[in-house]
C-alpha cells in the first residue's frame, strides 16, 4: 500500500501455519525495501513480490528469535543476493547487523527506529517507522491485537513485558498504527489508543497481568525445538 | 488504518475457513461506517470492533451473492440494529438497498461508487472509493491477487469476467489499491498496475483466458448448496 502524502510502499503478508505476519516496506522512489519477520515457508512468495514490484531488498529484519516458525531470513539471503540480515544484539542470534536501543534501519528516505521491548524474549524489539505523514510500529510478539506474546518459555518474563509495552509502545501517539507478528482471529492491525483502552490483559494492573500470564496453561510450542536453534542462525542450520 | 491526508478508517479482516476478507471503512470524523463482505462466523468479532472503535455501522455491503460462505449481513443487522443491507440489483438477492451501475454508497464524507463487474456471477460489482488522497477498490471475486474468481458455477462466464476486469477495473489508475474478497496465499492486496503486468490469467488474450478458465477442473464448492440460498436472503433463511 502506498499511502497518501508519502512514497511508502507497504504490504502485509500472512503465513497460515504459524499465523505469522510478514511486512514489506519500501521507498517507492529509491526502490529500497525491507522485509520484517519473513517465514521460511513463504520466503519464495515474498522474494517474487519484491521482484514483481521492482524493489531492491536491502534488509531482512526480525523482531526477535521466533519459537513458532523458522525465519525466512537465511533463505531470502540466498534468493535475493546482497540483502543483509538484521536482529537485536540482545537476541544473541547470528546476523549481519545487530541492533541496540535507538539505532535505525534506513531504506530510502524512511527509517525504522529500534525500541527494545523485552518480556516475550530478552531480545524482542519494536520497530517504529519515522515518517511525518504516517505513524506505524511493528511490535513483534510484544503486543498483539487485544493480546500479547507468551512469557512462559525462552526468557519470558511477564513483568518485563508489561513495562516494555507501557514504557515503549503505549508512549507512542494514540493514532500510531500497530502491526503485530501474529494474529489468530483474522485481525490485521490495531492502534495504540485502542490497545490502551481495550487490551484485556494490558489494561490490568501489573500484578494482575503477571498473574494472568503465569496461569495461561498453554501447550508447549510445536515448532520450538527446531525453530529456535535454526533462528539463532538466521534460519539456517549449517 | 487511518491514512495520511484523509480521515478514512480502514481495516482488513480475515475469516480463515473460507479465506474471506471483510473490510471495515469509516469516516473518523462522523463515525459512519460500512462493512464489506462480512462472514456469519466472524460477524460478532466485526460488531465488537465497530463498537470498540466508537463507530456507527450504517451499511453492510456485499460484492455479490457468495457461494463459499454465509454472509454475516443478517446477523449484523440483529447485532447492530439500524444498519442496512446492500447488494446489487442484478444479484437478485434480498436486501434493503439494491444497487445499479454508477450509484453510490455514502458514509460520512466518503462514497463507494458501484461498477458492475459480472462474470463470476451476474450480480458481481466492484466498489470504488471516491477520495482525493487515496485510491482504492473492492473487487469481490472478480479480480483476486494474481488470480480471479471461478466462472464454472452460478452464472459464471469467463468472457464476461474478462471484459469486466479490462473494462471496469484495469481502467482505474495504475496506483489504485485493490482489495479482493479472498486470498489463499497470505496476500492481502494488490494494485491495478501490478495485475495488468503480473496476473497470470488476465494478461492473456481473451480467447486464451476463456480456455484457461474452462479447464481449471476445480472441485464443487463445499458450502455452495447451503450458502447460496442463505445469501439470497441476506444470510438468513427465515
UniProtKB/TrEMBL annotation, chains A, B:
Sequence ranges assigned to domain Metallo-beta-lactamase in this UniProt record: 19-182
One GO BP annotation of this record: glutathione metabolic process
UniProt xrefs under Pfam families: Lactamase_B
Keyword check for DNA-binding: no
Domain of life, source organism: Eukaryota
InterPro entries: Metallo-B-lactamas, Mito_Persulfide_Diox, POD-like_MBL-fold, RibonucZ/Hydroxyglut_hydro
Alphabetical list of SMART domains matching this protein: Lactamase_B
Catalytic activity: S-sulfanylglutathione + O2 + H2O = sulfite + glutathione + 2 H(+)
Keywords for the protein's UniProt record, in alphabetical order: Acetylation, Dioxygenase, Iron, Metal-binding, Mitochondrion, Oxidoreductase, Transit peptide
Gene Ontology CC terms, in alphabetical order: mitochondrion
GO molecular function, one term: metal ion binding
E.C. number(s) listed in UniProt: 1.13.11.18
Cellular localisation: Mitochondrion
Top-level class of the enzyme under EC nomenclature: oxidoreductase
Cofactor needs: Fe(2+)
PANTHER family tied to this protein: PERSULFIDE DIOXYGENASE ETHE1 (PTHR43084), PERSULFIDE DIOXYGENASE ETHE1, MITOCHONDRIAL (PTHR43084:SF1)
Membership in a protein family: Belongs to the metallo-beta-lactamase superfamily. Glyoxalase II family.
Oligomer status and interactors: Homodimer. Monomer. Interacts with TST. May interact with RELA.
Protein name: Persulfide dioxygenase ETHE1, mitochondrial
Organism from which the protein derives: Branchiostoma floridae (Florida lancelet)
Gene: LOC118424863
Amino acid at each position: 500500500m502506498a499511502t497518501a502524502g508519502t512514497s511508502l510502499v507497504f504490504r502485509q503478508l500472512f503465513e497460515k501455519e504459524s499465523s505469522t505476519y510478514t511486512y514489506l516496506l519500501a521507498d517507492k522512489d529509491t526502490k529500497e525495501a525491507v522485509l520484517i519477520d519473513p517465514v521460511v515457508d513463504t520466503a519464495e512468495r515474498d522474494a517474487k513480490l519484491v521482484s514483481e514490484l521492482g524493489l531492491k531488498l536491502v534488509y531482512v529484519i526480525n523482531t526477535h528469535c521466533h519459537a513458532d516458525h523458522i525465519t525466512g531470513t537465511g533463505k531470502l539471503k540466498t534468493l535475493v543476493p546482497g540483502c543483509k540480515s538484521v536482529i537485536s544484539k540482545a537476541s544473541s542470534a547470528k546476523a549481519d547487523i545487530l541492533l541496540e536501543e535507538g539505532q535505525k534501519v534506513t531504506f530510502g528516505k524512511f527509517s525504522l527506529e529500534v525500541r527494545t521491548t523485552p518480556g516475550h524474549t530478552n531480545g524482542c524489539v519494536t520497530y517504529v517507522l519515522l515518517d511525518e505523514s504516517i505513524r506505524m510500529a511493528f511490535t513483534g510478539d510484544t503486543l498483539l491485537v487485544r493480546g500479547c506474546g507468551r512469557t512462559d518459555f525462552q526468557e519470558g518474563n511477564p513483568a518485563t513485558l508489561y513495562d516494555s509495552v507501557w514504557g515503549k509502545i503505549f508512549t507512542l501517539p494514540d493514532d500510531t498504527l500497530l502491526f503485530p507478528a501474529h494474529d489468530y482471529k483474522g485481525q490485521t492491525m490495531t492502534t495504540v489508543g485502542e490497545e490502551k483502552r481495550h487490551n484485556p490483559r494490558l489494561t490490568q494492573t501489573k500484578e494482575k497481568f503477571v498473574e494472568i500470564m503465569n496461569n495461561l496453561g498453554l501447550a508447549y510450542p510445536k515448532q520450538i525445538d527446531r525453530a529456535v536453534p535454526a533462528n539463532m542462525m538466521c534460519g539456517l542450520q549449517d
